[in-house]
């Protein structure tokens, strides 16, 4: 066993930790119900420490203090979500404890873990037990106790992890939300995965590559958690560069507590990062600018995330701002090509699937962004397509409720053209809106016509259940086909044709003049033709069209108008 850890080894331990949590992020997502059931803790923690790993790989390893400082700074700027910000604070305190150290032993490691806990508890405004804070605190306490007997880093870290698992198992009894969902705390689990990755590198074990999907793991019952339990809808994270290094953030903390909860603020000499759940993210951002210059921000609607999870759909983050930041840091900061206006109107649409993309292209869309459920584009992605569109006025069709806010943030960013975001929530709505655009009509006339057009569209979708759950009174079994009408659960069935028949008999389809069926990437031509026949028989007064959408997740998307 090694008696000490030097800078190079610490860097490898942290890089290994990033690989470890990346390999288990989906499992951790499936445990995420507190403070809100939005299923992204694993992704957030993985991306947070992944930012640090990228930075550590770029820089030659120095002393332990230098490596820890690099890690802490990268974590602060890359922190995503509540768990990511707390993780950055844990390592911020760690870095302060080893600032002057060239190497560390087990005693130093224990002290550093304790410093991290102190930093996290100090920054979290309303610490809750049964969380990552509890797990990290009890892990650090055991590390200190062990270090008094044996200062070998491996022994100390192993003891911290062992006690951490005891604490993790008890989180289900400490937090009523976890108890209701039947899972342990996701953030605590992620923290232990990171520590285990560090220990594995210390022992010379190979880095993990992918998560073993065949392993039986616990999952949260997201359907047992009511949307009403989400008091504050928007998960808001942003970075502010300080105008004064010695700025006092106490008044700002008090203000944020008055408009939200789950508040965590991490800072260094140059910047501070805020995580807060609030219903008024704009107010939080505006107030922050009294203390410095706003650099980056991300806002996610946790209610829609929770709804999708309860419906059996996998949800990831709604933007990719951290990836954009990484691109900029890697020297890809050249301004995207901006097309000069050559016509009055242009259209940018979001969709997933080659068939759907072809439909939008055929209808005259200038830019098409691949995205939708599980892969929502960022504001930057949308802005790039807007910049490339040679028009004075660019209509943006998000075609997904989770993308509307990201699209709206493009409005003030456009410099030489006007951006109009039409709040389409489905692909069929977007197609209907595009069909109604008149290149010779006035702006307001087009907005009114396109809005009226997509408002007439009733959208239904068929997907599948990834697990057993109970949702809106429906007992859902893994493998069931799910029919959604306007994103609300319409019904379930083990027989797809039977479910299609029920959907065809529903009022929107029975009253429709036009029905379009877009079949997905997992549907054969034969099955699609059978779906067409079902709708033609059930809806004799409607013109029914069948198109290959090629979309993932949904077997069928059906529009009726």
TrEMBL record:
<feature type="domain" description="DhaL">
    <location>
        <begin position="8"/>
        <end position="200"/>
    </location>
</feature>
<dbReference type="InterPro" id="IPR036117">
    <property type="entry name" value="DhaL_dom_sf"/>
</dbReference>
<protein>
    <submittedName>
        <fullName>DAK2 domain-containing protein</fullName>
    </submittedName>
</protein>
<dbReference type="Pfam" id="PF02734">
    <property type="entry name" value="Dak2"/>
</dbReference>
<dbReference type="InterPro" id="IPR019986">
    <property type="entry name" value="YloV-like"/>
</dbReference>
<dbReference type="Pfam" id="PF13684">
    <property type="entry name" value="FakA-like_C"/>
</dbReference>
<dbReference type="Pfam" id="PF21645">
    <property type="entry name" value="FakA-like_M"/>
</dbReference>
<dbReference type="InterPro" id="IPR004007">
    <property type="entry name" value="DhaL_dom"/>
</dbReference>
<dbReference type="InterPro" id="IPR050270">
    <property type="entry name" value="DegV_domain_contain"/>
</dbReference>
<dbReference type="InterPro" id="IPR048394">
    <property type="entry name" value="FakA-like_M"/>
</dbReference>
<dbReference type="InterPro" id="IPR033470">
    <property type="entry name" value="FakA-like_C"/>
</dbReference>
């Amino acid at each position: 066993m090694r008696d000490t850890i030097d800078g190079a080894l610490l860097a490898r331990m942290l890089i290994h930790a990033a690989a470890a949590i990346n390999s288990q992020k989906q499992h951790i997502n499936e445990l995420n119900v507190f403070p809100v059931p939005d299923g992204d803790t694993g992704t957030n923690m993985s991306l947070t420490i992944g930012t640090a790993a990228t930075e550590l790989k770029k820089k030659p390893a120095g002393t332990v203090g230098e490596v820890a400082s690099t890690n802490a700074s990268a974590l602060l700027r890359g922190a995503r979500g509540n768990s990511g910000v707390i993780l950055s604070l844990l390592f911020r305190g760690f870095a302060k404890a080893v600032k002057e150290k060239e190497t560390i032993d087990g005693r130093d490691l224990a002290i550093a873990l304790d410093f991290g806990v102190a930093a996290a508890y100090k920054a979290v405004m309303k610490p809750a037990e049964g969380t990552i804070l509890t797990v990290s605190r009890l892990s650090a306490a055991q590390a200190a106790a062990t270090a008094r007997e044996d200062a070998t880093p491996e022994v100390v870290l192993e003891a911290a992890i062992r006690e951490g698992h005891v604490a993790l198992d008890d989180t289900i009894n400490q937090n009523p939300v976890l108890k209701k969902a039947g899972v342990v705390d996701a953030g605590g689990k992620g923290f232990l995965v990171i520590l285990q990755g560090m220990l594995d590198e210390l022992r010379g074990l190979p880095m993990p590559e992918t998560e073993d999907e065949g392993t039986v793991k616990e999952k949260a019952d997201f359907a047992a958690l009511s949307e009403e339990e989400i008091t504050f809808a928007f998960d808001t994270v942003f970075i502010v560069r300080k105008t004064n290094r010695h700025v006092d953030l106490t008044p700002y903390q008090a203000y944020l507590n008055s408009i939200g909860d789950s508040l965590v603020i991490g800072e260094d000499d140059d910047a501070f990062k805020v995580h807060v759940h609030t219903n008024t993210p704009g107010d939080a951002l505006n107030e922050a600018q009294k203390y410095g210059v706003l650099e980056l921000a991300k806002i996610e609607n946790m209610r829609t995330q929770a709804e999708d999870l309860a419906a059996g759909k996998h949800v990831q983050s709604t933007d990719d701002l951290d990836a954009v930041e990484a691109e900029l840091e890697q020297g890809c900061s050249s301004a995207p090509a901006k097309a000069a206006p050559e016509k009055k109107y242009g259209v940018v649409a979001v969709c997933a699937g080659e068939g759907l993309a072809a439909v939008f292209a055929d209808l005259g869309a200038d830019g098409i962004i691949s995205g939708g459920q599980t892969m929502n584009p960022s504001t930057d992605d949308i802005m790039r397509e807007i910049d490339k569109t040679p028009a004075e006025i660019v209509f943006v069709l998000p075609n997904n409720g989770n993308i509307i806010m990201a699209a709206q943030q493009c409005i003030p960013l456009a410099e030489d053209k006007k951006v109009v975001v039409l709040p389409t929530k489905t692909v069929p709505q977007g197609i209907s809106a595009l069909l109604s655009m008149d290149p010779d009509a006035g702006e307001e006339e087009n907005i009114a016509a396109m809005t009226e057009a997509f408002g007439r569209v009733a959208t239904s979708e068929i997907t599948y259940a990834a697990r057993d759950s109970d949702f809106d009174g429906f007992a859902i079994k893994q493998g069931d086909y799910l029919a959604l009408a306007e994103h609300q659960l319409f019904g379930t069935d083990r027989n797809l044709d039977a479910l299609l028949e029920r959907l065809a008999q529903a009022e929107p389809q029975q009253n429709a003049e036009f029905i379009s069926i877009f079949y997905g990437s997992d549907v054969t031509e034969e099955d699609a033709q059978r779906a067409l026949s079902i709708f033609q028989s059930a809806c004799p007064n409607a013109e029914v069209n069948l198109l290959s959408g090629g979309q993932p997740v949904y077997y069928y998307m059906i529009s009726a108008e």
